[in-house]
């Protein structure tokens, strides 16, 4: 099985587990697990933005050694794939944004194909991800990704099957659709305060679906800045977490 087929299978698994979990929650009135899942989904999205995107892909802030290791492993929870793979694909996207070489370009391959990641992508390229491949923690995540994911499911299932829904499946589904909304919506609709060389936009709906990431035109015009919301109303919870708890100094 190729890495791409593994990723599609994984996303299908997360969606099935989320739907099955939701069915049992409704049947048994176990609404507390839905509430827990929604809270954890929000936190997972914030950490997907902080760890995969702002820290690993763009190196937009520096942090302490313990927090560095934490940010490399928390990527597993987001369900968006091994960090090396995600970062390589993302750096390639920035380099070729809105050109035919941009695999995920919704204007070329279509919005649905882009949303559901039905396109070829890079899984390893020394040009785009050598720094991550040289890090033992990122290599460990890459080499053991599926074992870790399914072990987590097994452990939580033994403790309480509802936790598979709240802690793993719903956060992974939320991160998947949140990231998809950024790949599609913020390259098609929205306002453009910066005249960047691509068609990136700021889109408030995408910012609800993936908190802090919807201000994509700001991000594409200044990829090294960890602050994506520039106006007071451009809600950016990942930047707040970075500022308060993670950043030791700027890049
Ligand atoms: Zn980026």
Q: Explain this structure to me?
A:
With 251 residues, the protein is mostly helical. It has one domain. It is 67% helix and 2% strand. It contains 13 helices and two strands, in the order H-H-E-H-H-H-H-H-H-H-H-H-H-H-E. The protein has helices at residues 3-28, 31-57, 65-73, 75-78, 83-95, 106-109, 111-115, 126-133, 136-159, 161-185, 204-209, 216-221, 237-246; strands at residues 61-62, 249-250. Strands 1-2 form a two-stranded antiparallel sheet. Helix 1 (3-28) packs across helix 10 (161-185), helix 5 (83-95) packs antiparallel against helix 8 and helix 9 (136-159) crosses helix 10 (161-185). The model has no long low-confidence stretch (mean pLDDT 94). Bound molecules: zinc ion (ZN).
Query: What is the percentage of strand-forming residues?
Result: under 5%
Number of strands: 2
Question: Which oligomeric state applies?
Answer: single chain
Average pLDDT works out at: 94
- Domain module count: 1
Query: Share of helix among residues?
Result: 55-70%
Q: Globular, elongated, flat, extended or rod-shaped: what is the shape?
A: globular
Evaluate the radius of gyration: 18 Å
Heteromolecules bound: zinc ion
Layout of SSEs?
Blueprint (H helix, E strand, L loop, with lengths): L2 H26 L2 H27 L3 E2 L2 H9 L1 H4 L4 H13 L10 H4 L1 H5 L10 H8 L2 H24 L1 H25 L18 H6 L6 H6 L15 H10 L2 E2 L1
Antiparallel strand pairs: 1-2
Bound molecules: zinc ion.
Zinc ion (ZN) binds next to α2 and α5.
